[in-house]
Amino acid sequence: MIQLKNKTELERMKKACQISAQALKVAGENIRVGMTTQELDRILHHFIVSQGAKPSFLGYGGFPGTACISVNNEVIHGIPSSERVLREGDIVSVDVGACIDGFHGDNAFTFPVGQISQEAQKLLDVTQKSLYLGIEAAQAGHRVGDIGAAVQALVEENGFAVVRQYVGHGVGHDLHEDPEIPNFGRAGHGVRLVPGMTIAIEPMVNQIGEGVRVLDNDWTVVTKSGSMSAHFEHTIAITEQGPVILTTP
Q1: What is the pLDDT of residues 156-213, one digit of tens each?
Q2: Which domain holds residue 201?
Q3: Rounded to 5 degrees, what are φ and ψ at 160?
Q4: Which end of the chain, N or C, is less packed with Cβ atoms under 10 Å?
Q5: Is residue 218 part of a domain?
């Protein structure tokens, strides 16, 4: 069931989204060659708690980290580790959320570590642009398929592939709510977007092929091709005046 938020609830939700956005900003400011993904996770945990919030992901379904930190060919759900060291040329996707006053925020960004290849930079640029095209399509009266179609068209025009096994979602009182928000689809199809909906749009894009698999830790999703993957996400609200990004620092 889709949970619509009234004006008061949206104001409360903005607080969680702002903390989530600031946490992502903190991640970008701290990522460096030689640090472990566990070090980064500790920094994010400290920040979220210091804001009076709780990390949305920690313990969710048994997940052991504050953030999902996924490197290179890891698509999503990377478990922070003391053994995973960031190196020059890596790309690292940080997916993090915060919960406060009964609401969640959720956002993700893929950061370059030092100097990265031109192909990796193109992957980041295209994936991020596809997110904003998806947001632009999220107008009241449009349908979920309009979002996915906008994302898919740009990604495939640039020779990359949209992950189909994992999708965006509603967000609010719960970290994952209805409806699902695929990053592919047909314009004019799917659930109609109405004011009061709050959704997380999150393109996950592989360099080569849409195929993915889950590692033996039962969490980390990697590309079947071994190619790099990028992930960008915002939580937005559907309003009469157009989509509003809630996870902007």
Answers
A1: 999 999 999 999 999 999 999 999 999 999 999 999 999 999 999 999 999 999 999 9
A2: 7-245
A3: -100, 180
A4: N
A5: yes
